[in-house]
Structure formats: structure tokens, C-alpha cells
Amino acid sequence: MEPRTGNPVGKELHLRMDHMEEVRVVAHALSSDVRLRILAMIGATSMNVNEIARELGAPVSTTALNIQVLERAGLVSCEMQPGTRGAMKMCVRGIDRVHISLSPTPRGERRVWECEMPVGCYALVGGVQPTCGMANRNCKMNADDDPRSFYRPNHFEADLLWMRAGFVEYHFPPADVPLNRVDFLELSFEACSETLGHNNRWPSSIYVEINGQRLGVWHCEGDFGGRRGQLNPPWWDATNTQFGQLKTWRVDRHRTYLDGDALSNVNLEKIHLNHEQDHIRVRIGVQEEEGHTGGMNLFGDHFGDFPQGLILRAGYYTA
């Protein structure tokens, strides 16, 4: 049986040269004497950032930056806990042993499957709250700020949809992909926050789930405007949301990455891909943070800056 990888419960991390970016991130984290001392310190017990800085004799700001490097590599896990003077960041080592194989694992032919889904072709929708609506390249569709419009048959025509709260779920057909031999899934889409008009400083927490497993949360800075989106049709008002950011979520055998940075310890094993599945469920939604829901815009290939809908890729090896 292949060892479990990238899993803090197992306390082991197995890396191969097939995944050079992961090796590079971990090697960088281990290349500093200060970071090695931090790992040695928190091996037996959790410590907060101030305690670690005091033990190191280093500034808190420098210590925090080094902890972020270790956290991105998946070697340290941190969480906020209440303290006597407010919340404090507690750190614990998530990995005890790192194994790096310098020889790539011999496999069959490498292939990548890709499927693009228009943003309007969702299979499920729920929890939608105003401000909300959708548009295609020719006009706004249905009535603004009416969540019921998301259930109308013409939603398949949408090239842009927006909501203050809620989610949409897409069902991707894996076709002839051998899901038991997939070694990564990658999802990319253009998105931003949602408020009335636009506001470049309107934060939102946008999450992605695959097969019911939450990969993590992207903290978007705003509902972007101030210049026209490169693909927006001429009739689209300049005061509206104009463009988003292209975000890439990648899950492999070890963990989840967002735009190349480690995001969570969710790996392919936790997504439960199997050959009996007739579709892969991808849900994108708005997470409430401290009573605030910052909404989301999802851009298709006729709005925003990037000519695409939602693109799902799967890398796999033939037998």
C-alpha cells in the first residue's frame, strides 16, 4: 500500500520529484536555521507566536514571517485561540518526518483531461440573497435582486452571475478519466466580491468544495471596478462590477493549493474519487465571516478579463 501523504495525522510527508514545486516549497521552508529551531521547539507542544519569538530572541514580526513559510509548506498548523488579552495565534508542528524520493515513480503515459463549464450551467443553487442577478452578452436576464430567477430555465445562457450570499454547484462529467489514477485536480475561474455597483475594498470569503469536501477559502479584497473589463459588452454600465481575479485551485495527493500557495491539508484521498462516479461535484459559494457576507461575481467568457468559464483539469497516468 502506498503511504498516506501530506497528512498531519500520519505525521509523515512523502514527496517525489514528480512534484517539483512541492519539493521546492518544503525545501525552502527547511533551508533556514531559524525555521529549523521553530520546528524543534513546537515538536512536543503548541506555542503562540510571542512565546516562540521570546525563545528565539527574535522580533515577533520576523518570527511570524518564518512561521508563515512553514505553514505554506504544510509543516506547521496554526489557529486563533482566545487569550487573556484577546485572540492569539497558536502553532503546532503537523509533520514529524519528511521523505523525499529523488527518483520519479515509473508510470504509464501522462495525460490531462480538461472540461470547460459555462457559469450559467450550474446543476444546483441555494441560499441566494440580493444583491443578485445574471446577464448574458446581450442583456441582463430576468429581474434584478430576485433569487427566484436563478431557478428559471434560461439560467444556462448566463455569462455573468452575482449574489450577496449563496452557492452554485456544477457537475462535471469525467468522461473516460480513470478516477482511481488521478494525481491532481485543478479548477480555475474568474471571480470577485459582490456589492451594489462596485467597491474595490469590499472583502468577501469565497469557498470551493469538491464532492462535498471544502478545499478552503479565498479572501477576496473587493468587487472590482474603476476600469472596464476587457471582455465586457458595450451596453454593460461602467458603474457595475467590471472584472475579477483568475484563481486556480489545485488538489494533489498531498494537499490543496491556491495560486501555487499551500491552502489546506485536503488531498485527493479526502475527495473520494472513484470509478463509479458519473460526475464530479464542484460547489462555489460565499462564506459568512463575523456576520459579514461579501458576495461573489462569477465571470464567463464574455465578461471580465479572462475568456473562459469554469475549467476543471485532471492529470492522470494510463495503466
Radius of gyration: 22 Å
Secondary-structure arrangement, i.e. CATH architecture of the largest domain = Sandwich
| Estimated structural class | mainly beta
Q: What would the principal axes of the Cα set say about the shape?
A: globular
Residue-averaged pLDDT, rounded? 90
Query: How far apart are the first and last residues' alpha carbons, in Å?
Result: 17 Å
**Series of secondary-structure elements, N-terminal to C-terminal:** EHHEHHEEEEEEEEEEEEEHEEE
Q: How many E strands?
A: 18
Helical content, roughly? 10-25%
- Report on the biggest sheet: 13 strands, antiparallel
Strand portion: 35-45%
Tally of separate domains: 2
CATH fold group of the largest domain: Jelly Rolls
What count of helical segments does DSSP give? 5
Return residue spans where pLDDT drops below 50 for at least 5 consecutive residues.
1-10
Name of the level-1 CATH class of the largest domain: Mainly Beta
CATH level 4 superfamily of the largest domain: Galactose-binding domain-like
InterPro entries: ArsR-like_HTH, WH-like_DNA-bd_sf, WH_DNA-bd_sf
Protein name: Helix-turn-helix domain-containing protein
Organism: Candidatus Ornithocaccomicrobium faecavium
Pfam family, one: HTH_20
